[in-house]
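In this section we walk through a basic example: taking a raw amino acid sequence and producing a predicted 3D structure, encoded as discrete structure tokens. The instruction is simple. Fold the sequence below.
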Amino acid sequence: MLFKKIVIVLLLFFSLNSYSQEIQLSSQAKISILTCGSGPELYSSFGHNAVRLQDSLNGLDIVFDYGRFDFNTPNFYLKFTQGKLLYALGGSKFPNFLYEYELENKWVKEQVLDLTHNEVITLFNFLRNNHKPENRYYKYDFLFDNCATKLPEILKKTFGDKLVFNDSHLKNKYTFRELIHQNLVSNSWSSFGIDLALGAVIDKKANALQHSFLPNYVFQQFNNTTINSKPLVKRERIILDRLPYENNVYFLTSPLFWFTVLLIFVIVITYIDIKNNTRNRRLDFILFFVTGIAGIIVFLLWFATDHTATASNFNILWVFPINLAISFILLRKKSLPKWVHLYIYSLLGFIGITIILWLFKFQCFSPLIIPILLTLIVRYVFLITLGKKNIKHQISL
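The resulting token sequence is shown next.
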């Protein structure tokens, strides 16, 4: 199965160099928009969009899409993490494109556009020119410049004021975070990770066209778009009819289960520490080390990458980067310096600010952090109380 997928990707990426040649489209040529279903992997959770050109008289059936990237790019993973990886417009033969979705059991819908022959030629020439090596690359942005947002963009560039995007199909307008969560299971590691990595910038309301960073909303938008005062979509059909993918998460493997287990464990250990006048240094080290590492990741995503969605991320208040250094002090020191207790007071204050930001919806945090925050509060209060009492205790190893 993996080998087949690799072959498909290679075929899709390297095919159709011949489309840079001059092609005279016949009167039978038509252009349609493809919307593809989601899959179980995080990268495929949001679906996909592409443009299809058919010309039966010339034997053409081509798909263009803006979702390609080259694994052979130097420093691929570093550029991907930094938000500097270039994506590209790619071309493929329709049967090759469709085979991938047949293989992965995903649905594909098609919207045939009501374009004149000259408009078909104009759009095809735009895509063909955009497919040239010097033009095909662009810097990907998950919210504002992806395979879905490109389609309204190129149609607007091609047809200008003749094309009108309406928004009457949207009964409610959502924030970017709410739109993302429409494609995720709430109690899942992917949902938790996305909420941890993305900042307050995604908690603002998206306008009608900005909803189209998701393929399903591109489908809806084009059904509510006009060209030359007539509907843009002439007809639609289902090419591949598959049941929607159900991403079931077993509770025993879910983050809520394990974070609750962590909370109970920390409460029990803290109770034992209080009863025996001890401090479990290993527990404190783990809590501070993990939150410190997470804080550094949040900090780097905010300040050291080009990702727009990871800016202004106030998760950094409770996964605090300096915790990484403090973790080693907590591991080594039997009697904690006074300034460490003052530092822990600050951490409690930061958690309080996190809750205030959440209540006022300045940033919406994952509900899955509730047991984590309770875990941290329990341990922080214990450490402060221990410092106040200034108890000379034996250390539990």
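Looking at the output, two observations stand out. The radius of gyration is 26 Å. The CA atoms of residues 90 and 250 lie 37 Å apart. In the next section we compare this with other chains.
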